[in-house]
Amino acid sequence: MPKKKAFPLRIDPKLYQVLEHWAADEFRSVxxxxxxxxxxxxxxxxxxxxxxxxxxxxEA
Length: 60
What we know:
Layout: H1 13-25, H2 30-44, H3 55-59
């Protein structure tokens, strides 16, 4: 597995609390949950390699 890029993230405390609960519900760490959400959004936008159809293809 390639090394992951580390960077600081400033986030609203209320949003972090929501992410904590969401991550716990899905048995992930908060970091893992954020990465999952971002990867899923990138795939839906057709910007993740190997994501298949882009959103534009589905709307056509």
